[in-house]
Structures are given as structure tokens and as C-alpha cells.
Design a protein that fits this description.
By secondary structure, the chain is α+β, with helices and mostly antiparallel strands. It has 21 helices and 13 strands. The strands form 4 sheets. The chain has a 4-stranded mixed beta sheet, with helices on both faces. The chain has a 4-stranded antiparallel beta sheet with strand order 11-12-10-13.
Amino acid sequence: MYVVVAGETVLPVGGAARRPADLARAVRELEAAEGPRWVWADARESYPPLLERGVRVARCHDLALTEGLLLAYEGRYGEPRSARAAHARLHGLPVPDEQPSAPGTLFAPEPLGAETVAEVLADQLRRISELPEPGRFRLLVAAESAGALVAAEMSHEGMPWRRDVHDALLTDLLGPRPVHGMRPAKLQALADEVAAAFGHQVNPDSVQQLVKAFKGAGVALKTTRQWELKQIDHPAVAPLLAYKELARLFSAHGWAWADQWVRGGRFRPEYVVGGVVSGRWATNGGGALQIPKVMRRVVMADDGWLLVVADAAQLEPRVLAAMAGDVGLARAAGEIDLYSALAQSFGGERGNAKIAMLSAMYGGTSGDASKLLAVMRQRFPKAYQFVEDAAKTGEEGRIVRSWLGRTSPPPSDRWKELVSGPEGGRAARDRGRFTRNFVVQGTAAEWALALLAVLRGRLPEPARLVFFQHDEVMVHCPAELAEEVIAAVAASAAEASRLLFGATPVRFPMEAVAVKSYADAK
């Protein structure tokens, strides 16, 4: 292992420090010669400068991400996870908060020294070795750290984004780009229709004004959400619903958004690895994980290149089958369409099989769910009991863990107050629904991370990962490499399954297609 800190390479961990004149060159040479696992305090700070110099690394150990995983496992969820905080805890010193200093801050803390980074690393490796299943947790740390590399690389590479197509699409849907502070023409026309329907001016962006206007028209509303508006018979509803849809597009992916997030023909969001408690990713702005379908036509491969888009079919039910070791469910999960394979157990209806599985994983009880869950309990007892046990654990205020050891947050003080009061039963059930899904969703996130880690190592040059969302990946590659990339995706899915679950009959198929536009993949 080698440490990278504060623009320096220190070689090796525990050895004499060497500070090369050209960091990027030193890392590139070592990467080519030895392929080491690099150690850094936080990949978000250490890796981008290397990427800007054209240097990519194969493996790393991210101290901040690892510390967060360990703290949660040790029942200290939410404590500061930076390497600086970890070092302070190690020596009984005051723990600094998590807020990083902005670039150029006058009193920014001194960069961590190599000895400090190496000391935190040694402590983390010791703590991992003392866990009940250290092998699984090491895999989690490796996958999470690989995710940090992928996130930085995708932000650096960017998703192909045609500004001319984007502008044409917005102009078609909204009208020409308006003067700053004004509504686009079509949005204003819809706002005028809403006002005309009420007979007076109403700001369609104001929930308070809308509720008051509907009340004046004899309609009582609690919210202005779409599902509630659709139940109302009033001439303002249709233009208001159309306005809200276009207003979301204008705000979330309009011209101002593109000015901020699209540079050099690439959409460059900032991904947050493990940004959701289950291990799923989030973003610091940009909305990369919520690209509306209408916008997908703007994502277009470069000339002579293609986008290989792949997603895992029915990932969470397959993960449940593998974790629970349920022979019957695993047999069905050996097929491409798991729900069709299960249909016979649910009266021959594929839809019933889907409702039963989703209800088991998410705690649904409405409609036919209860009846279908009874069938699942009888036909697939191990899978049913697996999620029921997780739910019971949560209801009792305890924690649950994913397959590799990601730990759920403990119950909050507010929950403890609620559960001891008149609404206690409801609060307990709500937490049970969270924990029953956490074990499945968290493990699905781990499978996806393993897929990313393996796939980035299998991609032929110059193919690049440019998008990732839960169970979907996108690779930008020369057209002649598309078939090789599709094969790499399939092989990586199989390898991710082996890494997590060993020899399992459960299949994790990745349906991949090569397209010119993201819109053509769906």
C-alpha cells in the first residue's frame, strides 16, 4: 500500500517517506509497475487532481468511507468520519466536526501527514480484523472505496450531453429561453389559464395561494400534490397539472441548470458514495439520479461512439433469494424473468407474484397484499422469514446489517418517545418496514458496487463508465467496442454475484443494449 496525502506520495506505508517532484508521474509509474492499493484520507480530495493529469488508479482504500462503515457497525452511527476525526478518537483528542474548510479559507487546518494517515489505516485494519466476519467487511470496504474511484471518474469524464438538443427540447416544451426572473412563454400561458379558471390572479407556484383559491371555489384541499388534484373536478386542475410538470422541468433541468452542470458537452454531477443510509448513492446537486424520461434524448454518444446501457432485472428479489437461501425462490431467480417464473405459485398471475415480492420487501399490506403474502409464507418460507425477522428486529429498536456488514442507523430519540406513547405501535411498524427493506436494499447496493468495481477493470480502452444509478450503468465507448463492452457487463454481473454469494443458483442478469441516444435504451 502507498499513501497519497496533501499532494505528496509517501512510499510505502510504514516505510521511509519520499516526496516526488511530480506526484502524478510518480503515481503513474507505480501504478504501471506494481498496481498497488493507494491509501488516502478522502478520494474526493485526492483523486480528482490525479485525474486532471491523466492518471487513473486501479484500487484504493478510502479512510473516510471506511471510518463511516466502521463507526456504524460499532454503534456510533453519524459520528465524524474524516481521517482527522478518526485520528483524534484514536488518541483521545477533541474530535473535529465534519465541515471541510472551503478552498482558500484563511484558517484551514494543516494537511494530514503521512504518518497520521498510516496510523488511521492501521487502526481500521485492526478493527476490521476483529469483526465476526472480517472477510465480508473487507469486501464491503473494497467495494465502497472502488465506488469512490468510479464516482470521481464519472464526474471527471462526464455524461455526453448535447446542449443544442437540450435547448431545442426546452424551447419546444417551454418556449424560448426567458429573461432572468421571468417564466418561459408556455409556462406563463398555463399560469394565465389557471388564473382565468379562478377569475383572479393566483401564483401557481404558491401552495398557500392555490389552497385559498380552491377553497374560495368550494373545494377543500390539504395539499396541491398531483394525486389529490386529480380527484377534483375544476377547470383550473388541467392547466395547473400541466404547469407543475413543466415547472419542475424548467427548475430541475432547464437552461440555468445546464449552465451550471454541463461543461464541454458533458454533464458533470458530483456523486456522493453511500449518500443514502442503505448504501445507495446520492448527488450534491445536478439531479443525476433523477433524469426525467423526456430528457434522455439529450444524452447522445459522440460521433463514432455508442452508449451501452444496462440494468439488473429484478435485483432486489434476487438478492433476497440469495441471502435467504430459499431453494424455491432461488430456483425462480435462476430465470431471466423472476416474476414469470413465480407466477404459477400465485394463481398463474405474474402481477400477483410481483405484488407478493414487493410487499414482503417493503412491508405492504393494502389490497391483495395480505392474501398474497400468505401464499409466499407457505411457498417460500425462508425468504419470507428472512424479511420478517429483519422487520421484527427494527420494531424492537435494534439494528440490522446488510450481507457484507453495512449497519442500519439506530432508532432516534424521537422514535423512542413515540414508541412509548399512544402511537407506539405505528412507530414500531414504520421502523420495521425500514429495516426489512434495509437488509435487501443495502445488499443490492453492495452487489451494484461490486459490479462497478469489476466492470471498470474489464472495460477496454478507451471505454468509460459515465453513469450509474442504483442498478443501472452506462458506458460510453467506440462503436466497434460495443459488443465487447456488453460482454464485459455480463461477465462483471456474474463475478459480482460470485464475490457476494459464492456458488448460488440465483442469476443476476444484466440486460445491456448499445444505442446512440439514452432514450432508445428504454
